[in-house]
Amino acid sequence: MKILLVDDSRAIAMVTTARLESFGHEVRHAINGQTAIEMFQSDSFDLILMDIEMPGMNGFETTTRIRALEGHEPWAWTPIIFVTATDSDTNLVTAIEAGGDDFISKSSPESVLQAKMKAMTRIAALRSRLAQANGKLQDQANHDGLTGLYNRRAMDLRIDTLWETAVHAGRPFSLLMIDVDNFKKYNDHYSHQAGDECLKAVADCLEGVARQVNEDKMAPGVFAARYGGEEFAIVIPDAAPGVHVGIAMTVVEAVAGLNLPHEWNEQWGKVTVSVGAVCMAPASGWVKETFRIADDLLYQAKAAGRNRFEAN
Ligand SMILES: Nc1nc2c(ncn2[C@@H]2O[C@H](COP(=O)(O)OP(=O)(O)OP(=O)(O)O)[C@@H](O)[C@H]2O)c(=O)[nH]1
């Protein structure tokens, strides 16, 4: 385990470090509460061993502050064991109230320290597995299983924040609604499985466009999402008016440029998309209105022959 040892006595810290290292742990020493907080913020630890009596900020206050910092991150919880000379009942109660997990006396025999470290190692392993599982779950909750793009839920959550920011800052907000042309016919003729592969290819292409736009610094924060079915969106949180037109054109050309055969897509003979591109500059009113306008423009692009975009 990687342990943060907080103790104002260098002599005691040296002895404790040697004991912990002999059990196979890695130890970092903080000489006071403030240093411990700084080290906690810049590194991650499996366990904190916290002295109680320290000049300035004592162990209880240091622990309370560490727990407050952890409060910003769901799932974060570093076990904290208080190490003290006086293992009174009052100390135990205060230690747990402050956010500590256990309590050990400085006079405890080596076997007790070793046993507690064993228990904490098990907890550390469990925490790491939980953090990994949680990361995976978050990922699954935010991404579309087929294409890997942000799903509708994640897109809506991100848009809520980005829209508010744009409205308050009086900045533009743009949105592209993108729909694969004659996709029902694609499924009907090439199979649903082939349809899935086609959606993946289109999604990769849109992600590539968004990435390029970000890299070119045309509109930072641009991202693509699967809106639902064969419909996608590209969200452009802050870009000069007109940028959405350039991106819409790039999208139409890039998808057609994939040259994915689609014999039943009218005169095109390949997979194409239609795009409705809207820019609210500056952003105002409701984000729903932006979607409504984008949908209308998309409908116009379809009605005007597909494989094209319409923009406001
Ligand atoms: N393979 C596959 N097909 C899907 C998926 N989601 C939606 N679809 C299909 O997408 C098709 C959409 O058809 P329509 O809404 O009629 O639109 P369209 O045929 O693309 O016609 P236009 O939009 O007018 O160009 C339907 O046949 C859906 O079954 C999916 O995840 N995989």
TrEMBL record:
Q: Which GO terms describe its biological process?
A: cell adhesion involved in single-species biofilm formation; negative regulation of bacterial-type flagellum-dependent cell motility; phosphorelay signal transduction system
Molecular function GO terms recorded = diguanylate cyclase activity
One Pfam family hit: Response_reg
The EC number(s) given in the record are 2.7.7.65
Q: Which reaction does it catalyse?
A: 2 GTP = 3',3'-c-di-GMP + 2 diphosphate
Might you report a single GO cellular component term?
Answer: plasma membrane
Residues with PTM 4-aspartylphosphate = 51
Annotated Response regulatory domain residues = 2-121
Which keywords belong to this entry?
Answer: Phosphoprotein
- The enzyme's main class, written as a single word, is transferase
Domain annotation GGDEF: ranges: 171-312
Judging by the UniProt lineage, the source's domain of life is: Bacteria
Protein's name in the database = diguanylate cyclase
